[in-house]
Specification:
The structure holds three protein chains of three kinds. By secondary structure, chain A is an all-alpha fold. Chain A has 14 helices and two strands; from the N terminus they run ααββαααααααααααα. In chain A, strand 1 and strand 2 form a beta hairpin. The mean pLDDT of chain A is 84. By secondary structure, chain C is mainly α. Chain C has a domain of 188 residues: MetI-like (MetI-like fold, Orthogonal Bundle). In chain C, helix 3 packs antiparallel against helix 8, helix 3 packs across helix 10 and helix 4 packs across helix 6. Classes of the chains: A mainly alpha, B alpha+beta, C mainly alpha.
């Protein structure tokens, strides 16, 4: 009969014995490389960003002065810069709102009515635009919104050209053509970030048990009442979770306003230009800190609303 | 003779929780040993201590006399049938069964032959090509068994292996496992929370409560003479009498147990012990009649065919004083 | 009784309209690649031609960015594959001090807007006088690709019955054998899916890249320059199709690799 203990065969068994006696050794071996990477490369970079934002630029030489100062942050409050922040927040908020409204029917249908093959169609139908090339999507809208593009053509064909003109004539948001107006920027933002709203919303709605809706109907609620008092509140965590993405992504984007829209700047664009052509790294860094702070506040509020369960 | 498995004041603490708390235990070679207890009583942790998935916080575990404190699971000649079977989903049945031989360097031809032999033993000949997902629960259980036995372990550990099966299949498997153990002569350590399963299969059993062994012995010992109130309650559904009542009925002034089948119903005026019927529960082979007597409720098992009293009727209860079993602690 | 499973017509229309809104614009790119109109985005195109594919093929300035993009994506994916899998393995193994902090750290590069990741790296390179190179691009890409691989791997770990690794050890396998014969075969498709998505993400990335690329151009940067200052518009359309296909195909593969699981790829971009 065999012995109660088996012999040790080779280095593999010896290492296994070490891992077994000291589980922390294996854990450390696994965790060290990614921790070093993320800790050094990423956290290190974030620290560098913060550090950079406390430096300032010498107005005459254009060189970065490596001395601690709050001067750069004070500069953020200058009307021109403060306008950028305000404009960005306004855009982020309206994009988020519009995404939520547009996303709802898709998410609701996919969560509640789509089955089998249709479920897959809806899933891929949202997933593919989410993952497919960002730049190509933006570019497609440049084609669509151009003065000579498809929108104008369709509007003229339907005899609705006057509506388009009226929209473009709106003060503040209008412009020469859709591709050079705030309205255009807004549309593209909504298009690009919409899938990020649909997915968490659908996840939240899918978690509403059917029996709960039946219970509501059973207790005498009309469809509209069920919708308002049961479905909407239960979808809310999904909306909040989705809004984290749409808000954050809009706030940080600098490609879309550069390609479609007016010359008015957003935070992302300001960061990009300040670090590039202007060479003012400290101010660029200070600008970049703004979304971080806003997102931290937003996330802590969202956490309180229970949004992370819907992710 | 050396014990197959021996626990020498073994404890396993998880933070403040004492999952296993100073257990002494000795499993003789070739026995079918059951560990019985409610969930969280430490029985599964004990099993995992034997297989090596947990390490004792204190104490020493010996397998056939050898201290295994420094031996990882892969070097213990002990195999486990897991509660969820843990079959490898990407391997077919034959590869699953041959896995233990494969990692020990046994050639393909030998291990396939042995795997087929084992599959025949568990009555799954011809299932070698199937994937675990294509099997029923009972078949998976047999594959898990074959996969463990092919390694010719000195001790086979079974973690509630029948828990996921339906009642009929479970009873058939109980008989089969028992027969298999007798035939192979391997020591089986079997964890279960089902007292009837433990009583019917085990040669010896340990009743666990709060990380400690409440009682250890043969099934009939434990059934007839539970040492504590917990054991009396958990194994079979014994009547537990408070000390005053036990004394009044002719026993010692101790908490005492009295099995329902040891009691007989009589006319109300013929015995010292009388009460009122408060409940009747039909169990098939008999009916459990609950009688409220002064100071306690007693269950009486009345065999089917015997006339039953009405609810609320006054009845007398008779029994042999020798069946009144005093217990050690409250 | 009224069927509860029939959607109201208006809802169906809105849902399908929403899906069309998501897909029609992308299709338009395909049409424009064939237009004969060179200077404007005129719709409908005055005529159709195949010549832009040939023109694009012969444009010398497209090939180096394409090679660079492929190389960066391949190397970043490899690094992310290793680091992301290690992370997932550690997270699946045990609860340990700092576990939640680590998961936040992994998600952060993709949770914060790209401009912050980009600007942070840019600041660090500037403070440490690191010159821009292919390496600095890869550094950035690998950082945000880790989370993609991690998400896929961790979801699969979760779905795997925890006891199969114990079963393997129980049957006599050492840690390396368990990894080789049990973990790898079961994680394989999830890792491949993660790698596909990471590749797609990296190949297409432009926001972080502009901050870490210096003078070099990846294909998306080349495209961005063309968008800001257009030269031959239909050539850009052809490149757009190439970029689209190079990201689209891996995404489809990833979907089919993980289909049927609770962890279908891509939920966490």
């Amino acid at each position: 009969m065999k012995s109660a203990l088996l012999p040790e065969r080779g280095a593999g068994d010896r290492m296994t014995a070490i891992f077994w006696r000291r589980p922390r050794v294996l854990l450390a071996l696994l965790i060290t490389p990614p921790l070093l990477w993320l800790g050094v490369v990423y956290i290190g970079s974030l620290a560098a960003l913060l550090l950079q934002s406390f430096y300032s630029i010498d107005e005459f030489s254009g060189l970065v002065v490596h001395e601690f100062t709050l001067k750069t942050y004070i500069e953020l409050l200058r009307p021109a810069n403060f306008d950028i922040i305000r404009r960005t927040l306004l855009m982020s908020a309206s994009v988020t709102l519009a995404s939520a409204v547009l996303a709802f029917p898709i998410a609701y249908y996919a969560a509640r009515y789509a089955t089998g093959r249709w479920k897959a169609v809806f899933y891929l139908g949202v997933m593919l635009p989410l993952w497919s090339s960002y730049l190509v999507k933006v570019y497609a809208w440049k084609l669509i919104l151009a003065k000579e593009g498809i929108i104008t053509w369709v509007a003229d064909g339907l005899g609705l050209g006057f509506l388009l003109d009226a929209a473009l004539a709106l003060p503040g948001v209008g412009g020469n053509s859709l591709s050079t107006s705030f309205l255009g920027t807004f549309i593209v933002f909504v298009y690009v970030w919409l899938p990020y709203m649909i997915l968490p919303m659908q996840a939240a709605l899918e978690r509403v048990p059917k029996s709960m809706l039946e219970a509501s109907a059973d207790l005498g609620a009309s469809s509209a009442q069920t919708f308002r008092t049961v479905i909407l509140p239960l979808a809310m965590p999904g909306v909040v979770a989705g809004s984290i993405f749409t808000f954050s992504l809009t706030m940080g984007d600098y490609i879309i306003p550069q390609i479609i829209g007016t010359s008015a700047r957003f935070i992302g664009l300001a960061v990009y230009q300040l670090q590039g052509t202007a060479g003012n790294l400290p101010l660029a860094a200070a600008f970049a800190v703004v979304p971080i702070i806003i997102m931290l506040i937003y996330l802590s509020l969202a956490k309180r609303a229970g949004a992370f369960d819907a992710l | 003779m050396t014990a197959a498995v021996e626990f020498d004041s073994v404890s396993r603490h998880f933070g403040p929780v004492r999952a296993v708390d100073g257990v002494n235990l000795s499993v003789a070679e070739g026995t079918f040993f059951a560990m019985l207890g409610p969930s969280g009583s430490g029985k599964t942790t004990c099993l995992r201590l034997i297989s090596g998935f947990e390490k004792p916080t204190h104490g020493v575990i010996r397998i056939f006399g050898q201290d295994v404190s420094n031996t990882p699971p892969n070097r213990r000649n002990v195999n486990t049938v897991f509660q969820d079977y843990a079959l490898f989903p990407h391997l077919n049945v034959r590869e699953n069964v041959g896995y233990g031989l494969m990692v020990k360097g046994v050639g393909r031809a030998t291990r396939n032959a042995k795997a087929e032999e084992m599959l025949a033993l568990v009555k799954l000949d011809g299932f070698g090509e199937r994937k675990p997902a294509q099997l029923s629960g009972g078949q998976r259980q047999r594959v898990a068994l074959a996969r463990a036995l092919v390694n010719e372990p000195r001790v086979l550990l079974l973690d509630e292996p029948l828990g996921a099966l339906d009642l009929k299949l479970r009873e058939a498997m109980q008989d089969e496992l028992k027969a298999l153990q007798k035939r192979l002569g391997i020591t089986f350590v079997f964890v279960t929370h089902d007292q009837s399963e433990a009583l019917s299969m085990a040669d010896r059993l340990a009743v666990f409560n709060h990380g400690k062994i409440a009682q250890i012995g043969t099934p009939s010992e434990i059934y007839a003479r539970p040492r504590t109130r917990f054991v009396a309650d958990f194994v079979g559904s014994s009547n537990v009498l408070p000390p005053e009542l036990a004394q009044r009925l002719g026993g010692a002034q101790n908490w005492s147990s009295l099995r329902p089948e040891a009691l007989r119903l009589t006319a109300a005026d013929t015995t010292a012990l009388t009460g009122t019927v408060t409940g009747l529960r039909y169990l098939g082979a008999g009916t459990r009649v609950t009688v409220a007597v002064s100071g306690a409720e007693l269950g009486v098992l009345v065999p089917t065919g015997t006339p039953l009293p009405d609810q609320g009727a006054a009845v007398g209860i008779a029994f042999d004083t020798s069946d009144l079993h005093p217990m050690e602690e409250a | 009784m009224r069927s509860e499973n029939r959607a109201p017509k208006s809802l169906t229309l809105a849902a399908i309209g929403g899906l069309l809104f998501l897909h029609l614009p992308i299709m338009l790119i395909f049409l424009y690649a064939f237009t004969t109109e060179e200077r404007t985005y005129q719709f409908p195109p005055p005529g159709l031609t195949l010549k832009w594919f040939a023109v694009a093929w012969n444009r010398a300035d497209i090939w180096p960015p394409l090679y660079l993009s492929l190389m960066v994506a391949a190397i970043s994916t490899m690094m992310a594959l290793i680091l992301g899998t290690l992370c997932a393995a550690a997270m699946a193994r045990a609860r340990f001090f700092g576990r939640n902090q680590l998961s936040l750290l992994i998600i952060l590069p993709i949770a914060l807007p790209g401009v912050i990741t980009g600007m942070s790296l840019r600041s660090a390179f500037s403070l440490m006088d690191i010159p821009f190179s292919t390496l600095t691009i890869i550094l950035g890409h690998a950082t945000f690709c880790i989370v993609i691989v991690f998400n896929n791997a961790v979801a699969r770990f979760r779905r795997l019955s925890g006891s199969i690794t114990e079963a393997s050890a129980d049957l006599g396998a050492n840690s390396f054998q368990t990894f080789r014969y049990i973990l790898l075969p079961n994680l394989g498709s999830a890792l491949l899916a993660g790698a596909m998505l990471a590749f797609a993400l990296s190949f297409d990335e432009v926001i972080v890249t502009t901050f870490t690329a210096g003078q070099q151009s990846t294909l998306p940067i080349w495209m961005l320059q063309e968008l800001v200052r257009p030269r031959q518009r239909p050539v850009t359309n052809v490149v757009a199709i190439v970029v689209f296909a190079t990201t689209f195909i891996p995404i489809l593969i990833a979907y089919y690799l993980t289909r049927g699981g609770s962890e279908t790829a891509g939920g966490g971009k």
